[in-house]
Amino acid sequence: MNFFLEVLIGGLLSGVMYALVALGFVMIYKASGVFNFAQGAMVYLAALSVVGCLEKGAPLWLAIILAFVIMTLFGIATEKFVLRKLVNQPPIALFMATIGLAFFIEGLAPMIFGSEPRALELGIVDEPIPWILDNWNMVISKFDLVAAGVAAVLVATLALFFQYTRVGRALRAVADDHQAALSIGIPLQHIWAIVWGVAGFVALVAGMMWGARNGVQFALTFTALKALPVLILGGFTSVPGAIVGGLIIGASEKLAEIYIPPVMQDLFGGNFGGIEGWFPYVLALLFLLVRPEGLFGERHIDRV
Amino acid sequence: MLYREAGQFKTTYAADQQIFPIRQDRIAVIALLAVAFVGVPLFASEYWFSAILIPFLIFALAALGLNVLTGYAGQLSLGSAAFMAVGAYAAYNFQLRIEGIPIMLSFILAGLTAAGVGVLFGLPSLRIKGFYLAVATLAAQFFIVWCLTKFPWLSNNSSSGVISTQKLIVFGYELDRPVEKYLLVLSIVVLMAFAAKNMVRSSTGRAWMAVRDMDVAASVIGIRLMPTKLLAFAVSSFYCGVAGAMYAFCYLGSVEPDGFSLDMSFKILFMIIIGGVGSIMGSFLGAAFILLLPIFLDIALPYCADLFGLPFSSATVSHIQILVFGGLIMFFLIVEPHGLARLWQIAKEKLRLWPFPH
Amino acid sequence: MIKRFKSAIAAVAVSLAMLSQLAVAAEEQFFPLIDYRVGPYGSNGQAFYGGFIDYLNYVNLKEKGVNGVLMTYEECETEYNNAKGVECYERLKGKAAKSAGPLHTMSTGISYALVDKSAQDKLPLAMMGYGRTDAVDGSVFPYAFPLVTTYQMQASAIVKFIKDKSGGSLAGKKIVYLYHDSAYGKEAIVALNAEAGLNKFEMVQIPVAHPGNEQGAQWLRIRQEKPDYVIFWGWGVMNQTALKAAQKVGFPRDRMIGSWWTGSEEDVVPAGEAAKGYMAATWNVAGKQVPVIADIEKVVYGAGKGNLQDTSKIGTVLYNRGVSAAVLSVEAIRKGQEKYGKGKALTGEQTRWALENLNITDARLKALGATDLLPEIKTSCANHEGSGKVKIQQWDGAKWVPVSGWIEGNKSLVHPLFQASAKQYALEKGITPRDCSKEK
User: Fold this and answer.
1) Which helix (H) or strand (E) covers residue C28, if one does?
2) CA-based, 20 to 30 A from C166: which of A9, A207, C185, C293?
């Protein structure tokens, strides 16, 4: 039982890390209907900028600010030079363009900041909290708790931003209906540039968390793969969906990795571990069969 | 001037409905086939066969398969590489387990196996749409590759999961020279491309397109969604499966499940988007573009760096390659979001009027 | 003005001299390099191939090549992708037809795809510490060389190291094998199973799905299993993640022993403090105290011909490994020239013979200044591996420190496994094995 709880909590906390990446996808999809495959690459770019600035001798706070500036400029440039030219194209063309963008970043970022894997020290140690370990014999990492806190603050900030600022309201209007938003005088392209900037900020937070955890390196781009099932589970357009989806995926994949392989081993013989790669996807797939628009996604009504 | 259809009268329905109704097109296709079957084997070097032409044809076939599904039936899939893996491993196992089975038969059976798996993973498409479906097909991608790794029986208990394909013996004749393999691949691809071209013109193809454009409307006019969508999955996976079998037998000779990665699925997707979604010819153009561009950059960039005396290290050149590849994809999409096939179409329209445009 | 004129004349004279020199020294030994410098494993490739190319240039600068034959190379980027590797191979093959050193791909997948092709084209395929391990049996694989040591021998050597550490017996102990769920990770399982049977320890296999950037579940399971040791077979991001995750569940790193692809600076530096005390196998030591490495830095980088942009990589584990691969290749060229004529470039077929008849002794390594870059190697038709020895090194937080002498895996246990596997391969492919007793 104790072990079960430990796995469950560990899973929920890694789910938070997935949700951090998924949030970036949601931001952009919500506002512009673009499925931004380059989000993983943006996480990489953001983390590399932080590390790159640190190496040039900047203190951490300055490095973070500089990285934020880089990400914002990058977001604006993307909007101006790529997406604006593709307005009114089918979604698949936009999706494809973001894949091209991902390649572009994967070539550009290491060229500027170097490609060797580096550590990113945020001053939070990824060690079990001794007090919990002693009293309940459970491993809960300090770092994971901090990450969960960061995610909570991020989501709260985003929610407040959406709810109470002028830009936020405009964003929601654009997300609801581009045409209507345009007709009441909301500058669509500014809004998109802002959204890409915000997505860059989310990528920065995710990049720092993942970078501090596993080191800053090319593999950060793979974090996108962990975020995709979270997205379909939570729905492409919902911020709370990303969080809840992340928690569900994180917990269930960890539990599955621990408890399913032994069962399969009894059935077929052989070693069946390593199911984490596909399990979240199959889970999300099964879930979609029941609710095709995800947990919190908008229900899609077809009209002829 | 040359490309004019005036004066070509269709006197029978058959003439009106043939695949290439314009005489110039027919001549062009026949000339192209003649070059591919006779001209190329006479002049191409071994490097061209084993490194460019064979993979080009194989990937074009896989792209064709994906184009049937995505371009004609409108179901976005990110799992093509996994269906290729099914084809490769199935063909290997048919060769291994059934004594004396002809290689052609095991390719066909491999395609059918892939089709079966494709139908299975196509079932969710009845409820799930758009990008949700695309991400759901990733389940197929990861699950299939995992299965191939985990069930040692599938790789004949090889300790590493890698299979080495058997010899290619067609009608008692062993194909081991690259040019022979090329001819085999070419024949299969040409045959299947014509089949696809015909299929998309038939009532099946029209049903697919109706579903693509709007499935609710399609069902209203009496198209049964389930068989139509599943057939698209089956046909698409069949093509990918055969492509996978050839990838293993005629190209690499030895494959591991991890080789059929998500990257490869994406590559196939790039091909159809760059080439043209919903175009048979686009699959070929796209495959050529995606395969040749990196090779071209690989050769051209160091040369350019030398020419201008830029102090690029090898690593920088490699990074620039990726960067330029990504940049070109975006550039092409901005210039022509409908792909190379559309450019071809436009060129054709212009040719019809040339040299007197109005 | 006159000064400028003078320097122009000098430049012309120099270039003329170079031209004439080129005309004379037409003999060049070509190395096809199927390498990678971008993508998820790009930084590993940069260090390895940087070291390899630097040593080739070093031989050219220091002693004007091998008996006057200059080492040349051409690179082709694979991004660690099998299909691209085949394209590169086909591209470089034409150039390699005239003269070819051993081919190094540093990728198990690519070398698998090239085993048949290279045998057909008569180009020797070197797989130092990766690739098709049953190619140790040279009677079935004349052109493939899993040189120095193989995964299976390495696993066996690691078990031996653990055994020595635990007082000579492993009975009743528990060892977890945590591996990358791919061909690379699975190769060692047969050897470990055999060792487990022999030494009566319990082995628990835990696979990690690619790419391995999330190992929470696996390490919680390890915590529950409470093993005495973890043998670790990772690659790329999986390595740092494992070290961090071990720290997270409080598993002591000095009881984690990794394979040689988990023990480089690229693997431990990103893990920061978490990597301290971690051990890994290797066949080459790190550091610039190795004479030849220091000399490369002086000679090659002094002349401005270094391949690395980032010179801090000189002396890292993978850089030195690249140098060790080049030392071995150049020694093979030397050996071949003894037989086929000094001052002549070798064809692939001749290099093959040389690789099969290598005999690099400690004295020779010392003369090269490459002590501890390689173990002693003696290859033959029946043994394409040639050594099977590794050292264990430990990360002290700043550098890798060797903590053992050369340890040899259990050859009598492991080599029969290769022979059985090679036999099956020969059967499947219809290859008639050579008779090794007739080779010389």
Assistant:
1) strand C28-35
2) C185
Q: Is A61 on the interface with B (CB under 8 A)?
A: no
Pick from A101, A107, A302: CB nearest B319: A107
A110 Cβ under 8 Å from any chain B Cβ: yes
Cross-chain residue pair C429–B47, CB shorter than 8 Å: no
Phi-psi region of A231 (alpha: psi -120 to 50; beta: other; left: phi over 0): alpha
- Quote the pTM value: 0.90
With H, G, I as helix, E, B as strand and everything else as coil, classify residue C235: coil
Q: Is C75 on the interface with B (CB under 8 A)?
A: yes
Who's near B110: CB < 8 A, 6+ residues apart? B86, B87, B88, B90, B91, B94, B241, B242, B244, B245
The total number of structural domains in chain B stands at: 1
Helix residue ranges, H only, A165-237: 166-176, 178-183, 188-214, 223-234
Interface size B-C, in CB pairs within 8 Å, comes to 109
How far apart are the C-alpha atoms of B292 and C324, rounded to whole Å? Answer: 35
Whether B243 is covered by a domain: the verdict is: yes
Two structure tokens written together for B214 = 């709007």
Nearest CA in chain C to B319: C38
Whole-number average pLDDT of chain B: 88
Nearest Cα to Cα of residue C353 among C46, C124, C147, C13: C124
Provide the b/e sequence for C109-146 (b: ≥16 CB within 10 Å): bbbbbbbbbbbebbbbbbbbbbbbbbbbbbbbbbbbbb
Using a 10 angstrom Cβ sphere, with 0-12 exposed, 13-18 middle and 19 or more buried, the burial of residue A91 is middle
Do the domain assignments include residue B350? no
Please write the tens of the pLDDT for every residue from A258-291: 998 888 888 877 778 888 888 999 898 888 888 8
- Percent share of chain A, pLDDT over 90: 29
**Phi/psi at B217 (5° precision):** -60, -40
**C430 — contact with chain B (CB < 8 Å)?**
yes
Helix, strand or coil for residue B45? coil
Domain hosting B170: range is 19-260
Task: Work out how many CB contacts closer than 8 A connect A with C.
Answer: 125
Q: How far is Cα of residue C313 from the mean position of the Cα atoms in its chain?
A: 17
Pairwise CB contact (< 8 Å): C40 & A218:
yes
Q: Are B47 and C91 in contact (CB < 8 Å)? A: yes
pLDDT interval class at B265 (50, 70, 90): very high
Compute the average pLDDT of residues B40-56: 89
Residues within 8 A of B (CB atoms), A 65-84 only = 82
Polymer length of chain A: 304
Distance, in Å, from the CA atom of A173 to the CA atom of A116, rounded to the nearest integer, reads 43
DSSP class of residue A49 equals H
C77 to chain A nearest CA, in Å?
Answer: 14
Q: Using an 8 Å Cβ cutoff, are C146 and C108 in contact? A: no
Q: Evaluate whether residue B315 is within a structural domain.
A: no
Subunits in contact with chain B (3 or more CB pairs closer than 8 Å): A, C
Contact B349, A120 (CB under 8 A): no
Of C249, C310, C313, the CB nearest to A139: C249
Q: Which residue has the tokens 């040389």?
A: C354
Quick check: C414 contacting B, CB < 8 Å?
no
Q: Which two tokens stand for residue C148?
A: 């120095």
Residue B96, in any domain of the structure: yes
Residue from C148, C83, C100, C140 nearest C116 by CA: C140
Residue C401: its pLDDT value, please? 93
Which one of B147, B159, B166, B249 makes the best mutation probe of the C interface by having the most chain C beta carbons within 10 Å? B159
The whole-angstrom separation of Cα C126 and Cα C141 is 12
Residue partners of B116: CB distance under 8 A and separation at least 6: B234, B237
Helix axes of B178-201 and B203-213: crossing angle, nearest 10 degrees: 70
